[in-house]
């Protein structure tokens, strides 16, 4: 986590230096739209902020999708644990009843 924070801080410093070193006025043209003259550094700063926001939003949606999958898997795991427990109990009961039958059969054969 600290590595990512360090990388983000370095990027922020690089962007700040870029913004202050590029005060030239430019006109942005996009799909037939022309902006008023704006400093190049401000445009780059807005692009970086927009990119960071979009990345955050996509990562948030991915996180919620993963969290939903984890909840579903935990629910499924609990159900399977209950089934496994009931199967183990029935196995123990059948082993006990089989032992009782064998004991009864051994007792009958010893009585004869």
Describe this structure in words.
With 112 residues, this protein is mostly helical. α1 runs antiparallel to α2. It has a two-stranded antiparallel sheet. A two-stranded antiparallel sheet has the order 2-3. The chain is rod-shaped, with a radius of gyration of 35 Å. The chain contains 2 helices and 4 strands, in the order αββββα. It folds into 2 domains: 1-55; 65-112. It has helices spanning 2-21, 40-111, and strands spanning 25-26, 29-30, 33-34, 38-39. The protein is 82% helix and 7% strand.
SSE inventory with pairings:
Elements lengths: L1 H20 L3 E2 L2 E2 L2 E2 L3 E2 H72 L1
Antiparallel strand pairs: 1-4, 2-3
Helix pairs in contact: 1-2
Shape: rod-shaped
Structural class: mainly alpha
Radius of gyration: 35 Å
| Biggest sheet features | 2 strands, antiparallel
- Stretches with pLDDT under 50, minimum 5 residues: none
The percentage of residues in β strands lies in: 5-15%
The main sheet orders its strands as 1-4
Total number of distinct structural domains? 2
Which sequence of SSEs, written as H and E, runs from N to C?
HEEEEH
The overall average pLDDT, rounded, is 85
Question: What is the share of helical residues?
Answer: over 70%
What is the overall number of helices?
A: 2
Number of strands: 4
N/C terminus separation: 79 Å
